[in-house]
DNA sequence: TCCCAGGCTTGGT
DNA sequence: ACCAAGCATGGG
């Protein structure tokens, strides 16, 4: 179905480093697997987007997944009206970015894997993980693999996790899966927590530190004030903000600000 | 080949 | 509490 959406650009979302199972399939189209479903999405023009999926899945899943009920215009305008020249340019460059509402468990595993890996390498490892432990499904002839549950990974041994290019992160993934599968850390409870409490709880997981916990809060819990600082954001802060970025300036939507910064710095300045 | 990648854990002060 | 080394492996 065709939808008219402002501040929405599929290519920018796919290349913004927040999701790892969204792939270009040509003709301004992308495939995506999330919440055990398969979607093809095409950008027809600036404000027209085609969603190829079951009709009911758009309303019950994808509209929420792509955060279509959040007013990004408000964020864009408040940055336009600021004195922040760097951020103005970043918004102009990536004004179609949205913060996705991804599955919490998948986001945890994905960002544990992400540490000291390039985005293509992250995507490759996650796809291997899904092909090995996920459920094989198909939608209109397209075969895809779901993201494996904590329980399925928890019952593996260290040997079972070899061949996925996890490297030293293999033990983090196995320990985290076990911790969640046995109820030591409860994701349903975390979903109800404040950003601060959720981040504290997430950091109990093996392989989850400050940065990964903030990414999980932002992309897996829609805590849009979370401000993950990775090497690219560090570069932004050092280069354009004199080494300190005051998160009080954009209080309430620092995560969206962070995403504009990341996308602009990483893709515009490939230094 | 060399360097870097959406960092974390551990052990030493 | 802070700091630095070590970490496995793919991709450019």
TrEMBL record:
PANTHER family in alphabetical order: 8-OXOGUANINE DNA GLYCOSYLASE, N-GLYCOSYLASE_DNA LYASE
GO BP terms in the entry: base-excision repair; nucleotide-excision repair
Pfam families to which the protein is assigned, alphabetical: HhH-GPD (PF00730), OGG_N (PF07934)
Please identify the protein, giving its name as recorded. DNA-(apurinic or apyrimidinic site) lyase
Q: Which domain of life is it from?
A: Bacteria
Q: Which residues form the HhH-GPD domain?
A: 113-266
Q: Does the keyword 4Fe-4S apply?
A: no
Q: Which SUPFAM superfamilies is this protein grouped with? A: DNA-glycosylase, TATA-box binding protein-like
Name the species this protein comes from: Anaerocolumna aminovalerica
Q: Which UniProt keywords apply?
A: DNA damage, DNA repair, Glycosidase, Hydrolase, Lyase, Multifunctional enzyme
The enzyme's first-digit EC class, named in words, is lyase
The UniProt GO MF terms for this protein read: class I DNA-(apurinic or apyrimidinic site) endonuclease activity; damaged DNA binding; oxidized purine nucleobase lesion DNA N-glycosylase activity
EC assignment: the record states: 4.2.99.18
Q: Which reaction does it catalyse?
A: 2'-deoxyribonucleotide-(2'-deoxyribose 5'-phosphate)-2'-deoxyribonucleotide-DNA = a 3'-end 2'-deoxyribonucleotide-(2,3-dehydro-2,3-deoxyribose 5'-phosphate)-DNA + a 5'-end 5'-phospho-2'-deoxyribonucleoside-DNA + H(+)
Looking up InterPro entries in the UniProt record yields:
DNA_glycosylase, HhH-GPD_domain, HhH_base_excis_C, OGG_N, Oxidative_DNA_repair_enzyme
Looking up CDD domains in the UniProt record yields: ENDO3c (cd00056)
Identify its protein family: Belongs to the type-1 OGG1 family.
